[in-house]
């Protein structure tokens, strides 16, 4: 193990470990048969037991090891004692072995802000559960209809992520994305879940970086929060293909794995906890995330949580996609 790793790498090693634990919690809640769903602001804004337990786990674990951090989570939870079995004290050795970028060698805990989305893609998580729970519990799925339901549920589970972002001076500098159900489609013998992470100036790990060929424009966008602005902006990109999926974290995964060339969302909806961690990973491999005006988002502790000018993210050719944003969209998201 590295000798006396610097603060940022110790924090990342803890974030990695608790993200892995969070993925296991999300799977356990799914398997329990009871998601514990409550409506936050309506039927399209849900919170599950997984959201609550994962946020408790992440916030309590990081606070215990790094008490001076500012941690901002999506869920508005009451202050209460967190069960010991939710606390993760381990650190990922593979992270500790990496060198800290020199520009972050002198960071102090109180200078850092951690943004937590305990379950990005809650809608897809609940929809997948509903489909899975509708299939009779037996050793094998038999009918064609049941197989179709199963396939749909597994595709939805691909959208679900746990997101942890770290910012310094308002800039997203490091992030973790855990996909709890990665490899779910491979059956009972597969190792479930994976964790991707990245630090500016160091790189990103846990996946194979791939790019869409330059002669193809594949746009990924929302599957459930569309409106005329979103549609107009997507079509203005003159895409060869449009992919509609859930989860901001999932859309960034699509960019870095060569499934899409641009993430276009010309609307309100995403928050800082949706984009901080994924943005850091994207930037660590040379990509870019801005609002629809080309401005960077700020992630200091006092900013408003809503990304009110939309999201445009690319691995390459950001200026091209930015140039295609209609003036009407820019005016609406001013």
General description of the model:
This protein is of the alpha+beta class and 334 residues long. The chain has two domains: 7-205, Fructose-1,6-Bisphosphatase, Chain A, domain 1, CATH 3.30.540; 218-333, D-Maltodextrin-Binding Protein, domain 2 (3-Layer(aba) Sandwich), CATH 3.40.190.80. Helix content is 35%, strand content 20%. It is built from ten helices and 13 strands. The chain has helices at 7-32, 49-65, 93-96, 122-134, 144-157, 228-236, 248-256, 272-284, 318-323, 327-332; strands at residues 38-42, 45-47, 70-73, 112-120, 161-168, 171-179, 194-199, 203-205, 218-222, 241-245, 262-265, 288-290, 311-314. The protein has a six-stranded mixed sheet with strand order 3-4-5-6-7-8, sandwiched between helices. Helix 1 (7-32) runs antiparallel to helix 2 (49-65) and helix 7 runs parallel beside helix 8 (272-284). The radius of gyration is 19 Å and the shape is globular. The relative contact order is 0.13. The model has no long low-confidence stretch (mean pLDDT 92).
Domain count, please report it. 2
Which structural category fits the helices and strands? Answer: alpha+beta
Unreliable parts: none
Strand content: 15-25%
CATH topology term of the largest domain: Fructose-1,6-Bisphosphatase, Chain A, domain 1
């Amino acid at each position: 193990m590295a000798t006396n790793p610097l603060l940022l790498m110790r924090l990342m090693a803890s974030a990695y470990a608790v993200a892995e634990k969070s993925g296991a919690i999300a799977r356990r809640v799914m398997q329990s048969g009871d998601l514990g769903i409550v409506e936050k602001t309506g039927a399209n804004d849900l919170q599950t037991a997984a959201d609550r337990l994962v946020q408790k786990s992440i916030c309590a674990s990081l606070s215990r090891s790094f008490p001076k951090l500012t941690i901002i989570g999506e869920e508005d939870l009451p202050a209460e004692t967190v069960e010991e079995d939710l606390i993760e004290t381990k650190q990922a050795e593979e992270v500790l072995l990496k060198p800290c970028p020199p520009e972050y060698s002198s960071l102090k805990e109180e200078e850092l802000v951690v943004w937590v989305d305990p379950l990005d893609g809650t809608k897809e998580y609940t929809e997948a559960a509903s489909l899975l729970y509708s299939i009779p519990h037996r050793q094998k799925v038999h009918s064609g209809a049941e197989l179709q339901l199963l396939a749909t549920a597994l595709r939805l589970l691909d959208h679900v992520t746990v997101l942890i972002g770290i910012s310094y001076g308002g800039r997203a500098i490091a992030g973790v994305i855990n996909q709890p159900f990665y490899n779910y489609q491979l059956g009972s013998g597969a190792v479930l879940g994976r964790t991707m992470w990245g630090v500016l100036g160091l790189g990103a790990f846990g996946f194979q970086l791939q790019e869409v060929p330059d002669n193809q424009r594949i746009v990924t966008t929302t599957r459930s929060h569309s409106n005329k602005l979103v549609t107009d902006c997507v079509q203005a990109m003159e895409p060869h293909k449009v992919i509609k999926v859930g989860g901001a974290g999932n859309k960034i995964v699509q960019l870095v794995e060569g499934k899409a060339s641009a993430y276009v969302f010309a609307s309100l909806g995403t928050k800082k906890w949706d984009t901080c961690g994924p943005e850091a990973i994207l930037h660590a491999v040379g990509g870019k995330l801005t609002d629809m005006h080309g401005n960077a988002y700020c992630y200091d502790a006092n900013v408003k949580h809503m990304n009110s000018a939309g999201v445009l993210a690319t691995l390459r050719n950001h200026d091209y996609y930015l140039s295609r944003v209609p003036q009407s969209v820019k005016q609406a998201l001013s």
